[in-house]
Design goal:
homodimer, 324 residues, alpha/beta, 9-stranded mixed beta sheet, 13 helices, 9 strands, 11% strand
Chain lengths: 324, 324
């Protein structure tokens, strides 16, 4: 049995018996995390999530899975661009928007205000600092942005600083702002600690990091145990394609509740089975596999260093080819 | 000015003025650790450590710096070998001994008993688990060894598990056993947290890890602030040569108190300026530099894959040469 078929959407309903729970759990390395979760607990959690699974699968197939957009507020965008993009993504049905912060606090306040003016307070705003601050600086800075009511501040400081994140989270809790992190988290032992310490109110697994799917499963299980929602990182080529499988599995087979998946509308056209987002909802993939297969022409054009686009750029002197 | 000359022993006394403190501190990256230590604090700590420095240098030159041995209890040694080695290192003047544990608890108890019988309770015993256990397992196991009064348990679990180490440390504190770790610690942010959380009663910096000397300096400063003794890891080729410089600097110029340095009596003959340990004391190196220069013949014999010894082993079929 191919492990990935367990994940592919159209096989969810074949995954019922105790033996199959055991098979799934047997793929996870529990070393160093048994103080938080054991294989027996994991099996029991999966078992308890069976009720209503068919309905959830049906719901996913009909309604899709909510997404948020990171496209409206990259650094360096003009006010006009931000306004225009907010309008565009509102029109596309989005209700949750993330923007970058951390370069200049006054500029951040203006950008938050601008976005709030466009999207209103009935929609969700999130902010992302990409590890820019030290701990105390993060607290002071985000406090100044609190009037714009962000749901969370993402990566306020070093991705290794569990206790720093916990300190920031504690300081921001009275303001209703959570801390999100995880895309750079190096392994399950770090995730375990983020959850134990209260350093992570939103758990942002990344499908291409740590030990791959096996280790990510352990993070999903621990997050469920701590009642911390997983909202996957998907700001990179192929990440949307992969995390949709994980997150839909989590909804149907573990937590029974929907969260959000990040959506960045780039490079999906390079994939054989691209992510499809309609009305801001990820449409449930129905092909087997992890949706990672690139089109033949994508490889032909972009493989380094022989792809056509690279060769063109070498010839134009945009890049120099490195000879090994 | 060569940064390393600041470290070399015979230049300690040239390092007095405020400007030189600033120069040293300017080599350290304080990003992500300012919630624990700032450059201003570091300068003030170094300034406060000036008093009596000449006497400490003199003391080092005359008496040397205490070491401990890891040679008596590697895994797989017979009882007779352990007894013999204990006698040998006692005769050489050693008063502190570290052995490996973690394979089998009954065997560990026997080995601890055997070593204690040889070295008595007036000498120091330390135990090292090399990351073998999960958190709760570590606590149960070490409790069973507590009657042999080890000073510390080294690397009881994952080297990334700050909170796990803190849990273990809390459980073992009533038994008078500390937790030691650090040789695998991946950066200053992790060290910061180990110190903040009480997960490290003995800080084992490794001279060849994290960001090299610059980053290690930040760890020394944080350890001093938390009153946690640094006892460097030196179980690898060249480590003894390097850490002696760091540790003697720490004694003369930061903490004013002597601790221990690990000593493994292997491969020192390959270095131009080898570590010299007499009567279990590291003799203060008097040559400039970091003592890392290998002898020409060491490179000639052991460089991979062209060194004579490698070529010999390829010819004998002991290893196969990997062609790139």
């Amino acid at each position: 049995m191919n492990f990935f078929t367990v994940f592919s959407f159209n096989c969810f309903h074949s995954f019922h018996s105790f033996h199959l729970f055991q098979l799934l759990v047997s793929t996870i390395d529990f070393r160093y995390i048994t103080d938080v979760i054991t294989p027996e607990e994991a099996i029991s959690m999966l078992k308890n999530a069976q009720e209503g699974k068919e309905e959830r699968i049906e719901h996913l197939l009909v309604k899709g899975y909510p997404s948020y957009t990171t496209q409206v507020g990259w650094m360096g965008y003009s006010d006009a661009t931000i306004q225009e993009l907010c309008k565009k993504y509102l029109d596309l049905g989005f209700t949750a928007f993330k923007i970058k912060v951390g370069r200049d606090v006054n500029s951040d306040m203006k950008r938050c205000m601008l976005v709030r003016k466009e999207i209103g307070y009935e929609n969700t705003l999130m902010i992302d600092a990409n590890q820019i601050w030290d701990v105390n600086e993060a607290i002071e800075w985000v406090k100044k942005l609190s009037e714009y009511k962000p749901l969370f501040i993402e990566e306020p400081t070093s991705p290794d600083d569990v206790l720093g994140h916990a300190t920031i989270a504690k300081a921001l809790r009275p303001l209703g702002i959570g801390v999100a992190t995880g895309e750079m988290c190096c392994n399950r032992v770090l995730f375990k600690q983020f959850l134990q310490a209260g350093g992570m109110q939103y758990c942002q697994i990344d499908s291409a990091r740590i030990g791959g799917v096996n280790e990510i499963l352990s993070v999903y299980l621990m997050a469920k145990k701590f009642n911390v929602p997983v909202i996957p990182h998907a700001g990179g080529v192929g990440l949307c394609e992969m995390v949709q499988h994980l997150q839909m599995w989590e909804y149907t087979s573990l937590s029974k509740s929907m969260k959000m998946i990040e959506f960045v509308d780039q490079q999906h056209d390079q994939f054989v089975y691209p992510t499809i987002v309609l009305n801001a909802k990820y449409q449930a993939p129905v092909e087997p596999g992890y949706s990672t297969e690139l089109k033949a022409e994508a490889i032909e054009n972009y493989e380094y260093p022989n792809g056509k686009e690279w060769q063109k750029m070498f010839q134009e002197g945009i890049f120099e080819e490195i000879k090994y």
